Amino acid sequence: MSVSSTTKPAVSMTERSSSANLSSRRLRGNLMFTVFLSATVISVVILAVLLWTILAQGWSWLRLDLFTNMPSRKAERAGLQPALYGTLWVISLTALLAFPIGVLAAIYLEEYAPRNWWTRILQTNISNLAGVPSVVYGLLGLGLFAEWLRLDRSIISGALTLALLVLPIIIISSQEAIRAVPSTLREAAFGLGATKWQVARDHVLPVAMPGILTGTILAISRAIGETAPLLVVGASAYVTFNPNSFSDKFTVLPMQIYEWARRPQDEFQGLAASAIIVLMAVLLILNSVAIVLRQRFRRKIRW
Amino acid sequence: MTATSTTPRDGRRAQTLPVDVSQATHSVPDSNETPDSSILSLRDVSVFYGQFQAVTGVSFEIPKNQITALIGPSGCGKSTVLRCLNRMNDLIPSARVEGSIRYHGIEICSPKVDPVEVRRRIGMVFQKPNPFPKSIYENVAWGARINGMKGKLDELVERCLHQAALWDEVKDKLKESGLALSGGQQQRLCIARALAINPDVILMDEPCSALDPISTLKIEDLMRELIATYTIVIVTHNMQQAARVSDQTVFFSLNEHRQGVLIEQSSTRQLFTNPQDQRTEDYITGRFG
Which overall architecture, per CATH, does domain B38-128+199-284 show? Predict the structure, then answer.
């Protein structure tokens, strides 16, 4: 019975200290909730202000003429058709080049590559490439594609440069998505006498594809807003014809925006704002294609 | 007092043991297996994970059309040995297998042998049911399709689901996800999936450890039916299961270097009624420690 008399106060002691502890824990919990909420609110509010300013400034300039006219020195006749076409050409080509190469490289690194020093060097290099400033890619593109391969200041030069720029992002995010596929799935498939390719094609890729597409969306969103590398590669700011082939000279929307925004007249500021709206719309449309694809892949997986 | 109150764990074991060997009444060729009746033959097999040697010098025979149970305490290398038999350890970069594993006389650990070919002949059912996130039909059909099976897949799927005693439960929902099934059904689906590639040997790595007793019994009955056509090797923590279901039992334990070693191998009846090694006896009577 001496046992119970010693345990009794011990129990109430812990109860008292835990209830005292509870109020401070609750306080800390509420505090953190406020911190998280304000972090979210801050980013959303800033975005909303940004959108509102752009819309207010550019809305009145958003006319049909804008899409059909060439750039002009007179603001009321100026349009962005060549820049819009240029952006569509360059981005489509960038995605067509970077997506397959990036995904295939990720499959190699995750499913095939032996875990040795050579693979580690490759991996480290890819991670570092993702952090290289985009203007450096521009210099590479100028030297490699425009001059050495004599592709000149063409759409293909720009697209190849942007593809190089986003390739590390696509590879790394695809690798993450592939790594997240449960290894039990691979074992099950290998246990049935499947080859690596059969496992990757039928099990790993379908499960990883939503994640891969998310990474690709982010990468393409980055590429569509890039100005610096294209400026270095030699996109022209003032183009008065639409590109018709890979080898044509071109401009893109961010360059057109820059060209207009640096002019002193208010009219051109409005034009720049309207071009920003167009750029965002293009981005949203491209991303929604990827999102629809992603949903389709998600539905196909029968978890 | 001393015998019953060593640890609570031993006490609990003592209630369920000794194993009821009357259940192990399958016709077992009692001694002197002729070498040609063995389908897989291990000689001095050791497995390393990097620097660590997990299994040391294991040799035993796996007879055709019988169930061989691998039992032993956790971490003694039962699953590791099992995974050697279809080169699953190849998937673990640091794993290395030494010694000889012959399948119908062919050295399957040789680098000249394609592990894909080995796994096509020696199928596997895993501890946790792992259906593909695809339809029930596709779960069964996939293995056959990738192995270039021509002919009627529908019939094959139906036959394999019948063999796995699952057909009646799923025949109206073949298009539904394999993961929508219960745990026991999922495991039978995995067995059906393994049968669909028409293997020679089926390896089962604790196939019932995640299942309730009724599902477990279903799978055990199924195993007894399957050995008419197949050879089964099962790893199990459940000694009653080994006693109920297997023809031959191999007991593993750890040596002083914490490496898995084979202690005793004999017919299940013999191993559970008259173990030759003190360590085996200690383990099957729950006095292991």
Answer: 3-Layer(aba) Sandwich (3.40)
